[in-house]
Amino acid sequence: MGDRNVRINVPLLARVEGEGALDVRVKEGRIDELKLVIFEPPRLFEKFLEGRPYREVPDAVSRICGLCPVAYQMSASHAIEDAFGTEPGPWVREMRRLFYCGEWLQSHAVHMHLLAVPDFLGFNSVIEMAAHYPEEVRRGLEIQEIGNAIIRLFGQRSVHPVGTRVGGFYHAPQKAQVEALLERLHRALPLAEALVAWTATLEVPDDPQEFVAVSLRHPDEYPMNEGRLVSSEGLDIDIADYQGHFEEFQVPHSSALHALLEGKPYLVGPLARLNLNLDRLPQPVRDTLARTGVRFPSSNMFHSALARAVEVHYAIVEAIRICEAYQLPETPYAEVRPRAGIGYGCTEAPRGILWHAFAMDDDGRVVKVTIIPPTSQNQARMEQDLRWSLERLGLEKPDEELRLRGEMVIRNYDPCISCSCHFLKLNVERL
Amino acid sequence: MGEYAWLPRDGLGALLDALKGRGYDCIGPRIRDGAILFEPLETISQLPWGASDRQGPGFYRLADGNERRAFHFANGPQALKPLLFAPREALWRVVRNEGGRLAFEPIVPQAPPRAVLGVRACDLAALAIHDAHFMKGAHGAQPDLQYAARREGLFLVAVNCAHPSATCFCASTGDGPEVRGGFDLLLDEMEEGFLVRPGSGAGGEVLAALGLGPASEEAVRAARRQLEHVARCQTRGLPGRNLQDALFQKLEHPHWEEVAKRCLSCGNCANVCPTCFCHTHEEAPELDGASSRHYRAWDTCFSPDHSYLHGFMVRADTPKRYRQWLTHKLGSWHEQFGRSGCVGCGRCITWCPAGIDITEAAGAILEGGQ
Amino acid sequence: MIPVQYPHEAEIVERIQESPSVFTLRLRFTDPQVHNAYSFMPGQFNMLYLHGVGEVPISIVSDPQDGCMYDHTIRAVGRVTRAMAALRQGDRIGVRGPFGRGWPVEATAGRDVLIATGGLGCAPVVSIINYLLARRQSFGKLTILQGVKHSDDLIWREQYERWAQLPETEVHLAADVGGPAWPFHVGQVTALLDRADLRPDHTIAMMCGPEGMMRAVTHELIERRLPEERLWVSLERNMQCGQGNCGHCQMGGHFVCSDGPVFSYPEIKSLFGVAGF
Amino acid sequence: MSKGKPRVAVHKFTSCDGCQLAFLNLGPQLLELAQLVDIVHFAEAGMVAPDAEVDIAFVEGSISTPHEAERIRAIRAASKQVITIGACATAGGIQALRNLHNASEWMADVYARPDHLETLATSTPVSEHIRVDLELWGCPTNGRQVIGAVRSLLFGAAPVDERDKICVECKRKQNVCVLVAKGEPCMGPVTRTGCGALCPAVERDCFACYGPSDNPNTGALAHRFRELGLSERAVADRFLFINNWAQAYRVEGLKWREQENG
Ligand SMILES: Cc1cc2nc3c(=O)[nH]c(=O)nc-3n(C[C@H](O)[C@H](O)[C@H](O)COP(=O)(O)OP(=O)(O)OC[C@H]3O[C@@H](n4cnc5c(N)ncnc54)[C@H](O)[C@@H]3O)c2cc1C
Ligand code: SF4
Ligand code: SF4
Ligand code: SF4
Questions:
Q1: For residue range B45-67, what is the model confidence (pLDDT) as tens digits?
Q2: Distance of CA D204 from the midpoint of ligand 3 (Å)
Q3: For residues A70 and A76, what is the distance between their CA atoms, to the nearest angstrom?
Q4: Residue to substitute in D165, D169, D206, D241 for testing ligand 4 pocket (most ligand atoms within 8 angstroms of CB)
Q5: D32 to B287: CB separation less than 8 angstroms, yes or no
Q6: DSSP string, A307-346
Q7: What's the pTM value of the predicted model, to 2 decimals?
Q8: Which value does ipTM take for this structure?
């Protein structure tokens, strides 16, 4: 390369939610500096939530992200209930799982079909892909729609659903509605199985790497709303202790905060969840996965796509289980009695753990909030992965190829850049 | 008094079965979301046994009633209106073929015969108005295809009111509380059972099939006392039956501005009113543009588009909109239908989120003589 | 009777651009049965439907005797009418109608007829003018007064000029704002009344246009001792159904679409000009 | 509109991405839409041409950075029709709450090094920066609205401006009024239709995510809320929420906030 100074400027990275830039400086055949520049115009949610009544919080935090509003509503509700000492009871607990299944289905389906899979198949968009893979696209859209339907069952609409309140839900669905949904879920089950099998056939770079995985872990369920925080390196803590082990900090090149676990980058999201909770999958889901021949835990980051497919399958199986046992409750929520205190909530958003801490006052107003979204937690890991992947690809490769691989690596994390970011420009500087 | 048959309380199920047996889809009052609404009725246990209500301006709460009664409540937010004049429905459909030709086709609902249990006197009075408007073309219209399809084969089981709400004033309009006509069967609910009377051939047949004995004279007397008591309980009233001339002389009264300070112009009064018939049209084309449906939807004189003319709104502000509602309902309605548009059901009082009371407003405007 | 609860297909036989924003559609029903059954009187209107967009009430301007085609002259002002402006000859639209009560043609017998219009108000009266001219012997003098905002707004100038040539026919034009090629009066229509030679006890007046203009003319005519029941106005209100069902067009107790749109002055006098009705 | 298929762009500004989902959640209709129009820019769906000239530009998000203020002007210049989608683009969004506070202080509280961030003191609607042809309200705007707008424009007609009150839709759906039957402080009487009266359908109060309706009597509703037992501060909160920067709500909300502060 000598001292040739190359600058590649990709104006906008497609198929991620938001805008950011990637700066890579290559010196003597090695990556000298790599920065995933995320420019998220700050929206200051943590600040304007201060002083607001608890009733409004689920509706407010939902607006942080249009792709995973349920996750925000769930983490915040749990945190506030924790602060107030509210016990929502078994019905609410089950229905929250069902509600969350809806979000996993819709979010994973959008990511797989609209954002990531076109990468593996070499298309720029789902619209191009649909011309060649009409069946697969239709299947993806159907799964997405069933996820939306579950969210609508409780929340009337799939983006910023309106049914959640601290303590539970405003309204319980009628039995007939749940039965109608159940029928659709049964029809979707073979689609999900087919999706797992198909995803396993997609050709992905075979490039194992070492990383730390972090997720929730529950004594007997695949994790969603509850559990302890565990890592592939033996961490096992209460969610309230998050800040004792994880450090959040600002880097000059990004408006999304970065986070490290005991000084190291770590991975959250479907691959981390699956790697750490394989034994919590119900048998049929494990069987379908086994038939693909792909082994988990996996250290191939590109197996994230398959992990998502497995979670799609799981979400449908779980939703069927809950719907089959559905009973109208006496009341769909627990009465809430505000009291001053701090509470924590950590749930598994489609993209990984979403951690909330809420300090409340006696009137039930918010005193202070900390929100740590999955994408900022993954940021350091993404930079680590980019370094690794680009070097393994070969830095002498044409800029275009470097850029494509870089984008593919980033998209593989399903970065929810709305929880954080914007334009992704790739600037490769070769010195 | 052979006029009334006696249906013991536990015989109500037999009536429901008889109706179902004749092919009717049955609808009756049920509790939903904190109010008593007309909903599909599968069993009589779904009726609001033991429930009642408390109502006031802008106020409605379910309350405890009498375990032995299923109809011991005053009317909820709906009358028969939504069952016949649907809140939103397609009127016709058009398909455009490749050559640009248009094929139009009316959409007439496949309406199975329906039986409604628990219809009140005010509901029937309102129904007569809507029949005149939608079916008999009171203002020159051809019969409304959708309304007519649903009206055909409607079987009405009326009930005389036994529990008035504080917002009822049907005695003052002359429309209740006693049901006087327009029903197929009429019930008076007593603790031990029901007095039943047929009001049509179809009603007579159903009644005959139930094979009931006659009601005792004591029961008939008790029912009469119950009805009189309900009428006496009503405290609200309008200043007169025909207020057309009086109201149109008060178009500049300051009270229009006064009400408008509180009125939200939300149209809830008109939407719950069983006689209001205004509707708007909407076009709903398919994305591909080849076909389209033309809908109608409930509308009220409180909406901006109700009086919109290009570049100009006849009623841009709330005083004009509220005045339109009141002068039409209690005034010009006489010119159009030969009676007032108010049947005294009190729904507009209860369901006005601002708690505006039509009897109070009319009183204030006509104060100092009509 | 043709069902009017839903539209019937009509073909645009001809399209005429009258001015930059005004165009005329000449229509024919495509279904011969509908075509044969359809008849109307001057002053009535149709609901015209543009595919996928919506319906608007538009007067019929042609002569009822000219039974094979129906003309509608439309000013493109808003959502539906602007989109309609793109229609071309051969295109199809939907038509429901005819609706409403038209002009009192019988009452013209043996009388002088005064027609006063403003703006595009001329559309609904063109039909009655044509109708009367075809029956010239049955009435007396015809006086046409037409006012427009700006001289450029005048459409059908040749038509007015042709009418002006007819025996016992007077045409007076006025524009609020004149222009270089405007030989006529500049000012209000009401001023034209001075030029017309009216015989109050023999005259029947028909008016159409903005309500302010109609009120002004009405007052002038009453001052000139025209009996109130011989003053007729055509009103406009929002209309969705066209047939006395949707309630939008009410003016007091009247459904303008079916009781009108043409009213005699005593019928509407009490609310004419009252803001809000 | 130019000959051939109209060209469409979907742009993102400061937002949560939720309104773009109105497109991405269309299902098979998204593919159908792609047949009818040429989607030239829609980064989230993979089409990238931010500077392309288009017939219709949909804009999501509020203007909250100097760069965004520039970018929106460029979009105006390159687009025949600019249609805002959602509360952020149409009214500044929930993040406009910063406009009522000292934003830089807030920034310092959230970020240790606020000097690394480039941002404006306010989050403002697109219409405060450029001329907007149509505003689709809602947080989020839904598929029916965007499809309705596109379809109307394809027919050569202006889209319908929906400005009735939520109550109108609420009654059409035969929901039980939560204000009357539960005493909930429902914002339906001053909020614009479009959502389908979703909140009352789940027995809760509308919180005005569709913004002010035609002729909103905010003062009367605020007084009604006081009668229902809300404090002055709670009344202010009702108005100063998702669409806090929309004129009718801002004025009413600030009035109550001032009263609360004496
Ligand atoms: C009986 C009658 C006869 C008419 N005859 C003619 C005619 O011959 N030529 C002509 O150009 N215009 C005529 N009009 C006016 C014409 O109907 C309106 O200009 C037209 O409805 C405007 O529709 P728009 O969608 O283009 O306008 P917008 O301003 O976008 O209006 C939206 C909607 O409001 C309603 N609306 C708006 N203005 C009126 C109005 N003035 N009258 C009734 N509804 C309205 C319609 O439903 C319309 O679709 C007549 C109106 C009436 C009532
Ligand atoms: S009177 Fe009441 S219900 Fe009627 S529009 Fe006014 S506020 Fe709404
Ligand atoms: S629930 Fe709200 S939106 Fe519905 S009618 Fe009542 S006040 Fe209006
Ligand atoms: S009812 Fe109100 S808050 Fe709820 S979705 Fe609709 S506009 Fe938004």
A1: 999 999 999 999 999 999 999 99
A2: 9
A3: 10
A4: D206
A5: yes
A6: HHHHHHHHHHHHHHHHHHT----S-SB------SEEEEEE
A7: 0.94
A8: 0.93
